[in-house]
Specification:
By secondary structure, the chain is α/β, with parallel strands linked by helices. 34% of the residues lie in helices and 15% in strands.
């Protein structure tokens, strides 16, 4: 049994193996019956479009079947059933579980009670390893991962996608640049871990100061709900918005990424630019998650 709970527990060699397999799958080199007679249980305690549907699509494309918890309001959870009991029950129905939960550490807890592999599809502000793998895959489609300059823009305190990606990129000797409002910086514990591991982190106040030097810009949503004053949100968010004008001096290989959903942090005019990769990024969730399912179920 091989759980996938945190990107911290996956070696660079394992990451490269998954990305290589995803690349082959993306080119059509896979067995459509590889997971025939296997069942994937999808348990999402938070809303999701891309992660939930791409995992289901990945399983179906490999010949497996999917069972879904559906709405939390129609499950035994509303009766007070614990996550541990839910996992113990569902692991008797399926060959693997994909779990999303609002509480950090929920996936780790689930792995302790499950008799089948658990894949963490996001737990609070913690980890989101499948998103990280598809992010790495998207970057690798345009350039080698080693030694690149990656900028993180937006909410880096609560953005679990940024947390996981920063950890994974540290395996490839990247230089990390952060551009974020005060109070939404990377958590100190994560920053300390990255610095201790030899990763260089450069803090910037304005995107314009660094945009021409970046290979990748990873944008995250500044969450409106974190600001009690709508005016304060509007004034801050406007300063962290990507427009075509901001991107006029980017390098030839520069790419722009976003885990989605976006609100207004990327101007829709940017969609037509060749550097925009966020919709391709979302599509890449299928081959990458196919590779992940093969790893835990084959």
């Amino acid at each position: 049994m091989h759980h996938i709970i945190s990107i911290k527990e996956i070696t660079r060699e394992e990451i490269d193996e998954i990305l290589d397999r995803a690349s082959a799958i993306d080119q059509g080199a896979f067995d459509p019956d590889a997971l025939k007679r296997k069942i994937l249980a999808i348990l999402f305690f938070e809303p999701s479009t891309r992660t939930q549907m791409s995992f289901a699509s990945a399983m179906l494309r490999l010949g497996g079947k999917v069972i879904n918890l559906g709405s939390v309001e129609t499950s035994s959870i509303v009766k007070g059933e614990t996550l541990a009991d839910t996992i113990s029950v569902v692991s008797g129905y399926a060959d693997a579980i994909v779990l999303r939960h609002p509480k950090e550490g929920a996936a780790r807890l689930a792995s302790e009670f499950s008799t089948v592999p658990v894949i963490n599809a996001g737990d609070g502000a913690g980890q989101h390893p499948s998103q990280t793998l598809l992010d790495l895959f998207t970057i690798r489609q345009s350039m080698p991962l080693d030694g690149i300059d990656v900028g993180f823009l937006g909410d880096l305190r609560y953005g679990r996608t940024a947390h996981s990606l920063a950890v994974a990129l540290s395996r490839y000797g990247v230089r990390i640049h952060t551009i974020t409002p005060k109070g939404l910086e990377l958590p100190p514990s994560l920053t300390d871990d990255l610095l201790d591991g030899g990763t260089e982190i450069v803090v910037h106040e304005h995107l314009e100061d660094i945009i021409s030097e970046l290979d990748v810009l990873y944008v995250t949503r500044i969450q409106r709900e974190r600001f009690p004053d709508p005016g304060a949100y509007a004034s801050i968010a406007s300063g962290y918005r990507v427009t075509p004008e901001v991107l006029t001096d980017v390098s030839d290989r520069f790419i722009l990424m976003h885990p989605l959903p976006r609100v207004d942090e990327i101007d829709t005019r940017v969609d037509a630019l060749s550097c925009a990769r966020y919709f391709q990024q979302a599509r890449n969730g299928v081959p990458v998650r196919m590779a992940m399912l093969q790893k835990v179920l084959s």
